[in-house]
Amino acid sequence: MNFAGKVVLITGASSGIGAATAIKFAKYGACLALNGRNVENLKKVAAQCGEAGSSPALVVGDVSKEADTARIWSETLDKYGKLDVLVNNAGIIETGSIENTSLEQYDRVMATNLRSIYQLTMLATPELVKSKGNIVNVSSVNGIRSFPGVLAYNISKMGVDQLTRCVALELAAKGVRANCVNPGVTVTNLHTRGGMDAETYKKFLEHSKTTHALGRPGTVDEVANAITFLASDLASFTTGLSLAVDGGRHAMCPR
Ligand code: NDP
């Protein structure tokens, strides 16, 4: 895989899947714009990209805020003057069912996980059309299967899959591809940041041995492999795909 001369913008690159994806793109020679809110963490990821010879631009901001996302985009374009790959990865999880998820929670999850992708994709599309570039969205197994107790998250991720497919069809004639990855449980900070305490998270990872056919949770590197593949020319005839990176979880049924 070779991304030499290609400009890649990754949201949520300061941690977890986004950070691993940034480092992988750096190894493949990409010019990077890395977004996140935590500047210290972003600098650490940028330093790791630096070891691979890349010097990423940091486009700091909160993607759930419209003005921030507009600025994240304008700073990226000011820096590089084009875009080849947009990776919409930033996301949060919040627990709650229809009985106890507040509208504030719903709005926060939807603004971060879905509305921000809509906005950034809208802004980036003219440049992606020029470059015949592509989009990789980070959805979840929750986008294609239904789980109780994380209602707003499920709805947001299902929206990401539908957005991906529709945009893929809308931009196909212009040579722009759009795909998403649907990870299963992946070891990152997502769940603890979403309120899970350390002991419960440990049990959750243990339980993942039975909820994933391959008998374990996934790693950030495994998801980053799928993202870089979809973004690369190796996937030149693939668009509108929801690619499960979940150890077979999407195919499982209780019995
Ligand atoms: P992490 O919590 O480790 O990383 C989340 C990233 O998103 C951080 O870089 C964080 O930046 C960024 N982020 C969150 N909210 C915002 C915001 N409002 N504005 C800008 N950046 C933001 O979790 P993951 O790496 O696991 O999550 C990445 C994606 O993967 C998410 O979309 C998640 O839903 C998805 N996913 C994760 C799974 C898992 O099991 N881990 C499974 C399926 C999907 P900062 O810290 O700087 O605020």
TrEMBL record:
Pfam families in the record: adh_short_C2
GO biological process, one term: lipid metabolic process
Official protein name in the record: Uncharacterized protein LOC115624195
Domain of life from the UniProt record: Eukaryota
GO molecular-function term, one example from the UniProt record: oxidoreductase activity
Domain Ketoreductase: residue ranges: 6-196
Alphabetically ordered keywords of this record: Oxidoreductase
